[in-house]
Amino acid sequence: MGQLQTLGDVVRATVVLGVEAEALTDAERALIEEHRDGGVAPDADKLGAEIFAGGDPLGDAYAEIVSAADRRPLGQTYTPAPIIESMLAWASRRPKPGRIVDPGAGSGRYLLAAARAFPEADLVALEIDPLSGLMLRANVRAAGLSDRAEVILGDYRSANLARIEAPTLYIGNPPYVRHHQIDPDWKEWLVTTALSQGYKASKLAGLHIHFFLATAEHAREGDYGAFITSSEWMDVNYGSVLRELLLGSLGGTEIHVIDPTAETFADATTTGAITCFEIGGAEPSMRLRRVESVEALGALGLGAEVSRARLAESSRWSVLMRTAVQVPEGHIELGELCRVHRGTVTGANAVWVARPGAVKLPESVLFPSVTKARELFKAGVRLTDEEDLRRVIDLPVDLDTLSTEDRKLVNRFLRTAKLSNVQAGYVAANRRAWWSVGLRKAAPILATYMARRPPAFVLNDVEARHINIAHGLYPREELSPVVLDALALHLRSAVELSQGRTYAGGLTKFEPREMERLTIPDLAQLRAEVGV
């Protein structure tokens, strides 16, 4: 918690971060006046730097100062960053949004992360708690987003969101408030609003159900979103209105349930469910998936396809998840044997990727690398020749480790690189050192992941590196060359184009987590096949 020990400290922190320059509500100004005096003024530079780097010191402090029990009436549960990243990874595969709406923004964790993911989108955050509103405004200012963000201290259900031409992304963690604490007038709103859309709602529904319905009211065809909530709506009677919305106007696409043992939220014991939707979508099925950990979420997009007809016939959707994914006996998922990692993003291939002999630099910083998918398709079974591979320039973070002569060559190269302003690019600016690409170690098997044909799985005999046009398969334990051969052979012969995700234009893509879900013979079978 550091310098923020009390709620007064949190309020004063928002002041030193400049919230008084915003158009505050009376309730927010009253909070500032109540806590203006007392305590040492927080360090604005330190807080601002942490926020700008993606942290949430105000929200972290608030969650520690105010107990989960005291936050419960407002349904305030703070979402861990890995869950937000997974939901945004899902959104990044959709058309770029013109606007991002966070309907229960809290301190703005989703909003700020989404703002970084979609730097051209307008931002709208709604919150009813004045203190959260101050934290939200302070975070927006410190992150440098004030020119494209609108913070509304008001109820999402009654918000007036203007229509725009581009898609809107709705994303967040709607407040979890049980029906006992919901005003009767809002319960009536739920019933009448649902009825106007052709659905029957129960007044026993929690507040998160209200937020899904409000989204169906606000959104237009082409909009899309992802919310994380408790999963109980999948099975209880009052959740039927949400199940019908997802099968109808809300356009549900996938649901990912996180096992309760994973402790999704630090301050709430619940089974979390990420629900994704696309307004106007009418796919014949939805993807359902249960994962045992937050880390297993990946970029979403996975899961067994369950037909809408079958979902409509079922009053308990969680049951359908128990048999959603079946691995044949004697088989495992590839991810149990190997981690799959996409290659490194250079941020500027024109600077960091060069043909052999094209730049005068020490050999120690020039790494033969696969930089085009066709290099793997051409290689076939094995990559045995590095002569024609391009070199990725991967300099050490600490340039002082270079010899005097090598440092001269590197300094000359960096002066040239700066002429193209490469150091100011998003990727370079967010690296530990802008000049260090940070290639992964060589993967024993390299795979293509986007094409109009099944992926190539190529044994990497020359230990070439790879950038983000390929995936690397990294065994979780050491595998003999003959077992690697058997694994690559199975993948080449068994993986079909239909197992990937097909995009407009006919390209099929395998995300790293999707590739990890491919079914392969277990290690004993692979060894038996090659007589090991």
Please give a structural write-up.
With 532 residues, this protein is α/β, with parallel strands linked by helices. Helices cover 34% and strands 18% of the residues. It has 21 helices and 23 strands. The strands form five sheets. Strands 3-2-1-4-5-7-6-8-9 form a nine-stranded mixed beta sheet, with helices on both faces. It has a five-stranded mixed beta sheet with strand order 11-20-16-18-14. A four-stranded mixed beta sheet has the order 12-15-13-19. Helix 7 links the parallel strand 1 and strand 2 (122-127). Helix 1 packs across helix 2 (26-35). It starts with 6 loop residues before the first helix and ends with a helix. 40% of the residues are buried. The mean pLDDT is 88.
Describe the structure concisely for a colleague.
The chain is of the alpha/beta class and 532 residues long. The chain is built from 21 helices and 23 strands.
**Strand arrangement in the largest pleated sheet:** 3-2-1-4-5-7-6-8-9
The whole-number mean of residue pLDDT values reads 88
Shape: globular
- Looking at how many chains there are and whether they match, the oligomeric state comes to single chain
> How many DSSP helices?
21
Question: How far apart, in Å, are the first and last alpha carbons?
Answer: 55 Å
Q: How large is the share of residues in beta strands?
A: 15-25%
* Radius of gyration, taken over Cα atoms and rounded to an integer in Å: 26 Å
Number of E-type strands: 23
